[in-house]
Amino acid sequence: LVYTNPNLIKPEYDFVIVGAGAAGNVMANRLTESGKFNVLLIEAGPSNQGLLPSIVPFLAPSIQAIPYAIWNYTTIPQPALDNRTLAYVRGKLLGGSSSINFLTFTRGSDDDFDRWARLTEEPEWSWKNLRQYYLKSEKLVPPADAHDTTHQCNPSFHGNGPIEVSVPTFATDIDGRVISASKELGEEFKFNLDVQSGDMVGISVAQSTIGSTSKRSSSATGYLNSIFQRKNLDILIQTQVTKLLPSNSNSKIPSFQTVQFAQNSTGKIYHTHAKKEVILSAGAINTPQILMLSGIGDRAALTKKGIKPLVDLPDVGQHLQDHPLLLNYFRVNTKNTFDTILRDPHATVNALNQWNTTGEGQFADSLTNSIGFIRLDNSFWNGKVDPSAGPKSGHFEMIFIDGFAALETPAPNTGNFITVNTAVLNPLSRGSVTLASVDPFVFPVIDPGFFTAPLDVSTMVEAVKAVRKFFTASIWNGYVTSRFGTMGDASTDAEIASAARQSVVTIWHPASTAMMSPEHAKWGVVTPKLLVKGTSGLRIVDTSIFPIIPAAHTVGPVYIVAERAADFVKEKWC
Ligand SMILES: Cc1cc2nc3c(=O)[nH]c(=O)nc-3n(C[C@H](O)[C@H](O)[C@H](O)COP(=O)(O)OP(=O)(O)OC[C@H]3O[C@@H](n4cnc5c(N)ncnc54)[C@H](O)[C@@H]3O)c2cc1C
Question: How many helices and strands in the chain, by DSSP H and E?
Fold first, then answer.
């Protein structure tokens, strides 16, 4: 059952899961399915139900204007981005960031996961051994208009899990052009029928977490909605976990199985106990915050903050990785982009009505219908170490949008545009999450460290040039008329790098702040089975455990992590 009143929570459960986000809901579902365990799931935010911007795919960006559904984080000034601070929101509702994300679905490449297996010395994390888990997490469903998708995806690479994935319903003017350009330009931009095959490289039709009725498929809709009635699951919402308390036992290895929570900074403090394990699934920002508040982290840094260090794990909150994102705008010679719809209130209402009645039209899809994961030529890597996991991972991404994506620059009042977002997929820059205060309700200090590694800047410059090259294909003649904006004005490599520093934003993929490392490694935060080192009864299951960020959007990989983790837990306790 779903509770908002902490007084109704029992003093003890087998498992307490902190955070009902992408990973937390997978854990809640899998750990309650046998009926053997009782589980409490605690979520800081409210329910996702009935929240239209979280349901209608095209409206996804507008959730960020709903204060109660987000952690409205901002980074500290980024020295390599001309000291700009960046908006850095996370989802704060059932489904977490999977209820507010931009819906693009990618698993990662086989090289990405085989690298995880090497880094952790744990073969269970290899692509081959994860197969059952990625197939268990998602299924391909027909788009709402039920068109023939034979040339858009390959069903044989998909599974039978709760997350619904589909190709776009509403064809935009650029979809066919992107595919034609890919065919005309050859190997560099080759067509890839399905990015979920393990080989992500090439230009593909985007797959999104959208069901066949054109509604968002999130961890809340996929993993939680169907299990609200399970008697062995309690869900407490609008309640924030403030820290974990160590047990009083004399054991040398402290156990952190008592969970402390409250509904606001001045409200009553509550506790519950996990007989078997506490599972932290609060995401890559909040999981390290909770660990540090509980005395788990860098001894010196905790002492400085006045927190008694209980477990010395210097890597807590360190190694933050994210994909820097840049928006490349182009003017186009047509009225048929979403700019026209968004400027006309009647057209906007019509689009919403069409979505509501038929599940079709502009609002049925995410902002992007085509994506590309592209590799840089060997000549670029002369004298440099290639940071990608292998030949099936891209170096940068291109995300095609049939209109002006006003993420960083407000949309102009006139004109029609296409936007191509470019992202660096194997960033070498590292950042951190540290405590600003011992008050759990004060936001932590977030520093993604974007562009602090020079190679990330040069990779982004190559990505921008590649987009411009892509538009030299004959299909764009007379259609793309000019570049636009600060980046559009830049021509030389130095100008492009400088424009990038002025406009890079986040793609919202923070990861690796409680990274997994080999069982006996002194570095890292969790073991390959995701248990927090130097503790007992405490596991982490979310993007913070990624040993390195995959060259992919992160929700697919975190579903795989959680499905795998649920079996680790069952293997231990069943
Ligand atoms: C705007 C945006 C767009 C994105 N677009 C994409 C995309 O298109 N494709 C893609 O693959 N990925 C995308 N992502 C990233 C993806 O959604 C995340 O990587 C993924 O959801 C992370 O899963 P998680 O389980 O680690 O954390 P989350 O899904 O963020 O879940 C963490 C949960 O824990 C809760 N929580 C945190 N602290 C506490 C506490 N102290 N007490 C109780 N509860 C707590 C949070 O409220 C939240 O519900 C996007 C993310 C955002 C924010």
Answer: 13, 23
pTM recorded for the entire structure: 0.98
Q: State yes or no: 381 annotated in a binding site.
A: no
User: 323 an active-site residue?
Assistant: no
Q: Each residue of 243-297: pLDDT tens digit?
A: 999 987 777 899 999 999 999 999 999 999 999 999 999 999 999 999 999 999 9
According to the model, what pLDDT value does residue 407 have?
Answer: 85
DSSP-derived secondary structure for 286-317: HHHHHHHHTTEE-HHHHHHHTPPPSEE-TTTT
Whether residue 403 has its Cβ less than 6 Å from ligand 1 = no
Give the position, in ligand 1's atom list, of the atom nearest the Cα of 284.
26
Q: What share of the chain is helix, strand, coil (3-state, %, to 5)?
A: 35, 20, 45
- From 564, 486, 399, 417, select the one nearest 27 (Cα to Cα): 564
Give the separation between CA 143 and CA 329, rounded to whole angstroms: 28
The alpha carbon of residue 573 and the mean position of all alpha carbons in its chain are separated, in whole angstroms, by 29
ipTM, two decimals, is 1.00
Amino acid identity at 481: T
For residue 548 the two structure tokens come to 């390195």
Closest CA to 165 of 228, 210, 219: 210
Distance 66 CA to ligand 1 centre (A): 15
**Of 30, 42, 554, 559, which is best to mutate to test ligand 1, by the most ligand atoms within 8 angstroms of its C-beta?**
554
Q: Would you say how long the chain is, in residues? A: 574
Domains of the chain: 1-103+216-321+428-451+509-574 (3.50.50.60), 104-215+324-426+452-503 (3.30.560.10)
